[in-house]
Amino acid sequence: MMAQYLEIKSANADCLLFYRMGDFYELFFADAEAASRVLGIALTKRGRHQGEEIPMCGVPIHASDQYLERLIRAGHRVAICEQLEDPAEAKKYVDREWDPSRVAERYEWLFRYDVTQVTI
Question: What is the pTM of this model?
Fold first, then answer.
């Protein structure tokens, strides 16, 4: 799971990565530290990577819109990685993707915050 996360994160290095795990979006490493500060949520740990504990925090899917809005208003860019299959049915790893068009459909309201203000 962490190898998959790191691969997706490397393709979206300039964003906080909301990584779907069941009923939560989870964030790891520096993303988790930044999000926990902005959102005022608990920073926990999940396993180890290269001998160091991995910082982690998460938000429930059903409340994700309010957390995304707060992160974006605080100046962060966010990439959303969705699960494509049920973890119970996955052979080895759950298939995930970062697809901007799928994200745009579900989170269309977010894009109103990504507009450059112009004064005429």
Answer: 0.74
pLDDT tens-digit profile of 33-72? 999 999 999 999 988 888 899 999 999 999 988 998 899 8
Cα 53 from Cα 33, distance rounded (Å)? 13
- Whether domain 2-113 has CATH 3.60.140.10: the reply is no
Question: How far lies 74's CA from each of 7, 35, 57, 60, 86, in Å?
Answer: 26, 10, 17, 20, 33
Q: Which amino acid, residue 85?
A: E
Q: C-alpha distances in angstroms, 29 versus 17, 43, 71, 78, 118? A: 10, 10, 16, 15, 35
Radius of gyration of the chain (CA): 15
Quick: pLDDT tens for 95-106: 555 555 555 555
